[in-house]
UniProtKB/TrEMBL annotation:
This is Acyl-CoA thioesterase. Keywords: Hydrolase. CDD domains: 4HBT. It comes from the Bacteria. SUPFAM superfamilies: Thioesterase/thiol ester dehydrase-isomerase. One of its GO terms (molecular function) is fatty acyl-CoA hydrolase activity. Belongs to the 4-hydroxybenzoyl-CoA thioesterase family. It comes from Cupriavidus pauculus. InterPro entries: 4-hydroxybenzoyl-CoA_TE, HotDog_dom_sf.
Length: 138
């Protein structure tokens, strides 16, 4: 498993994303991860509508966030997402970095599993459609 699929987006936290301490509320980091994940999946043409159309749901079953430094209003940040596992599950690593300095502000990961939409059964191996989208031959 040496291939890594990576994508990054740039965003600036909005005023409504702040908590009473004037830093980005901790739950919004997950929303930023989701924006980067969707952009990443779009690069391989397997975003949520394509997942559904292929017959699979991909629920998040684990999500971790490590807050290193706070994000603040108006701070441009780069949100990096990388697919790092795909054999039995889909694991995506995330990093949020200050766009100007490159300093790491937050890191984390999400794990999703394939579920057959028709039977509602979880798969224990990657469905062939994801391997195809990743350009991997089984």
């Amino acid at each position: 498993m040496s291939k890594v699929i990576h994508h990054a987006i740039t965003l600036t936290p909005a005023f409504h994303d702040l908590d009473p301490m004037n830093v980005v509320w901790h739950g919004n980091y997950i929303r930023y991860f989701e924006l980067a994940r969707c952009a990443l999946l779009q690069t391989i043409d397997y975003d949520y509508p394509q997942m559904r159309d292929s017959g699979y749901a991909w629920p998040v079953v684990d999500l971790r966030v490590k807050y290193v430094r706070p994000l603040v209003y108006g701070q441009a940040v780069d949100v990096h997402a990388s697919i790092v596992e795909w054999e039995n599950r889909l694991k995506i690593d995330y990093e949020i970095r200050d766009a100007a300095s490159g300093q790491r502000l937050t890191k984390g990961y999400s794990i999703q599993v394939a579920v057959d939409i028709e039977t509602q059964e979880m798969l224990y191996v990657c469905p062939p459609v994801l391997l195809e989208k990743l350009g991997i031959t089984p």
